[in-house]
Specification:
alpha/beta; seven-stranded mixed sheet; globular
C-alpha cells in the first residue's frame, strides 16, 4: 500500500501540492488530459523546475483568462458532477470544496450556499483541488500523513479586504490540527491548501515508520530566505512483526 507523508516545513498551498505530485511521478500530460474532463476552459497550466538553495522542485502556474467569476458551492458541484471524471475523484473533490465552503460560511456568518468563493472559487482553485485528487489517485496513494503546519503571520490582501495571517477560513479549517508559528511574516498555509490537506490526511504529526521509495518537491510563489517548498515522501509503512513466544 502506497502512503504519503507531507512535510510542510514551508506551509502548503494547492499549487505546491500539484508540483510535489508531479515531481513524485505524476505525468503532466496525463494531468492535463484528466482536467479537460471538467469541461471548463479559459486557463493554461505551465510547469517548470526551480531551485531553492540548490534543491530542485516543480513550480505549477495556472494562467487564467477569465476574470471576476464568482461561484458558489452549487456551481462548483455542478461542474464536478457533470464532468467525465472518475466517481471517486468527483466525491473527494466535492468533499474538499464542501469543507472549504463550510469554513467560509462560519467565519462570515452566512449560509453555506451564500458563500461566493471569489479567489478560491476561480478556475485556478478548481484546478488545484481536482488536480491534486487526480494526482493522488494516479500515484495510488492510499493513506496520507502530514507534519504539523506553520501558520506564518502578518496580513494578506484579498477580496474581503486586509485580513490577518493565517486567514480566518484557514484557521477554521485547522481546528484540532497541530500548528505552530515562527518568525516568518508570510501566508504559509492558504485556505485551499488547508482544505485539501485536512480533508485527505489520516494523521498529523511525525513521519510514521516507513520505507521511502520516492521524494517530490513542489514550489510555492513566496520569495524568502527559506526554501519555499513542499516535500512529499512516498513509500510503504513498516509493519513491526511481533515475536513469537
Amino acid at each position: 500500500m502506497v502512503v504519503a507523508y507531507f512535510d510542510c516545513f514551508s506551509g502548503i498551498a494547492g499549487d505546491m501540492i500539484l508540483g510535489a505530485l508531479i515531481d513524485s511521478g505524476l505525468d503532466v500530460s496525463y494531468l492535463k488530459k484528466e482536467l479537460r474532463k471538467l469541461g471548463i476552459s479559459g486557463y493554461k497550466i505551465y510547469t517548470k523546475e526551480v531551485k531553492y538553495n540548490d534543491v530542485t522542485g516543480v513550480d505549477v502556474t495556472v494562467e487564467i483568462e477569465e476574470t471576476h467569476t464568482h461561484r458558489n458551492l452549487s456551481d462548483i458541484n455542478r461542474i464536478i458532477e457533470q464532468s467525465k471524471l472518475d466517481n471517486s475523484i468527483k466525491k473527494i473533490s466535492k468533499k474538499i470544496f464542501y469543507n472549504l465552503a463550510k469554513a467560509e460560511s462560519k467565519v462570515h456568518n452566512i449560509n453555506i450556499e451564500e458563500v461566493h468563493f471569489h479567489e478560491v472559487g476561480a478556475v485556478d482553485a478548481i484546478i488545484d483541488i481536482v488536480g491534486s485528487v487526480i494526482g493522488i489517485k494516479k500515484l495510488k496513494i492510499k493513506k496520507i500523513f502530514c507534519s504539523p503546519l506553520p501558520l506564518g503571520k502578518g496580513f494578506v490582501k484579498c477580496s474581503h479586504g486586509i485580513l490577518p495571517i493565517p486567514a480566518p477560513a484557514t484557521v477554521e479549517l485547522l481546528k484540532k490540527i497541530p500548528v505552530y508559528s515562527d518568525d516568518r511574516k508570510q501566508e504559509l498555509v492558504t485556505p485551499t491548501g488547508a482544505a485539501i490537506i485536512t480533508t485527505l490526511t489520516y494523521q498529523f504529526g511525525n513521519m510514521p515508520l516507513m520505507k521511502i521509495n520516492k521524494i517530490g518537491y513542489g514550489s510555492g510563489k513566496i520569495k524568502s530566505k527559506y526554501p519555499n517548498l513542499l516535500r512529499i515522501f512516498l513509500g510503504e509503512l513498516y509493519l513491526v512483526k511481533k515475536k513469537k513466544r
